[in-house]
Amino acid sequence: MEYSFPHYLLSKQSVDDRALNKDVLAALTASLPEEPLTITEVGGGIGTMLARLLRWEVISQAEYTLVDESDETIRFASSWLPGWAGENGLETEESDPNELRIFDSRRDVRVKLVRADIFDFIAQQPEPADLLIAHSFLDLLPMPESLPKLLSLTKNLAWLTLNLDGVTALEPVVNADLDTRIERLYHETMDTRPSGGDSLSGRHLFGHLKQAGAEIEMAGASDWVVYPVNGAYPADEAYFLKFILHFFEESLGNHPELDPAVFADWLGKRSQQVERGELVYIAHQIDFLARIG
Q1: What is d(CA 115, CA 49) in angstroms, rounded to the nearest whole number?
Q2: Neighbouring C-beta atoms of residue 79, cutoff 10 Å
Q3: pLDDT score, position 293
Q4: C-alpha span between 280 and 34 (Å, rounded)
Q5: Contact between 62 and 37 (Cβ < 8 Å)
Q6: Burial, 229: exposed, middle or buried (Cβ in 10 Å; 0-12, 13-18, 19+)?
Q7: Dihedral (Cα; 241, 46, 64, 225), 10-degree rounding
């Protein structure tokens, strides 16, 4: 199977749509200042959050800066966003390969795609935006030292979504002891990642945000729950599940606490569960809306 990270980001749109906490989203919508808005999204990937905010009519007039460190995802976003807009009845104008306008009679969003390491971007001291978005991103960073730097990107609100909080579960059971050990080791790889990371990022953000001087306006669970319906997964969620198993393989493939043959057999059985439309995947996560200052 060929693994494409942009394809993975596309495949998880429907998963994220279900997962995002609707109370936190409602609080965000009620708290946004008068448009036009300025928005900065860090770790923005291929632009699916921007598309979602337009689809859900959360924003209509905005200057939207999407920052991601990957050349591949920025290139993909520059072609995917105009295509998505056209399929959804919006027009686009491109003044530059990484600058475009998405608009119709009601909506007008100017998008700037920035390929940069997030901390290099922060070091440029860009003008703080009305809203900072970090979607499925903070649990990849060293905390708490990264948070004040990130919050310098907003003068008002931060919407911090899908922060992993210590549960990754796969059903049905393959081997109870082995399943538990693999989950524990998988989380440990996040906690010991040289670039930073925290498998308990969600619960720790309550304290980290307070320490950084931010006030939590709303918080709530945003769990990924992926399950078959009548033996099949909706949308492209079978690919999403295969990519999750790929993450396990990449993280634990040479782990000294796992016998390679036993782990390969476990991965094979999990993959077969996806093929048969049996696998259920749950990841516990937490969303936050924080006010700065």
Answers
A1: 17
A2: 11
A3: 78
A4: 42
A5: yes
A6: exposed
A7: 0
- The residue whose two tokens read 């999990």 is 270
Q: Name the nearest CA neighbour of 263 among 274, 276, 251.
A: 251
Helix, strand, coil shares of the chain as percentages rounded to 5? 40, 30, 30
Three-state secondary structure of 258-291: CCHHHHHHHHHHHHHHHHCCCCEEEEEEEEEEEE
- Mean pLDDT in each 10-residue stretch from start to end of the chain (293 residues)? 95 98 98 97 98 98 98 97 97 92 97 98 97 97 96 98 98 97 97 93 98 98 97 97 98 96 98 98 98 90
CA-nearest of 220, 188, 182, 163 to 26 is 220
The pLDDT, as a whole number, for residue 108 is 98
d(Cα 44, Cα 113) in Å, to the nearest integer?
9
Three-class DSSP category at 127:
coil
Phi-psi map region of 43: left, alpha, beta (phi>0 left; psi -120 to 50 alpha): left
**Which sequence spans correspond to the domains of the chain?**
5-166+196-224+282-292
> E-strand spans in 69-213?
91-96, 99-103, 108-115, 129-135, 154-171
CATH placement of domain 5-166+196-224+282-292: 3.40.50.150
Q: Which two tokens stand for residue 56?
A: 């859900």
CA distance 43 to 135: 7
pLDDT score recorded for residue 97: 81
CB 109 within 8 A of CB 102: yes
Phi and psi torsions of 281, nearest 5°: -125, 130
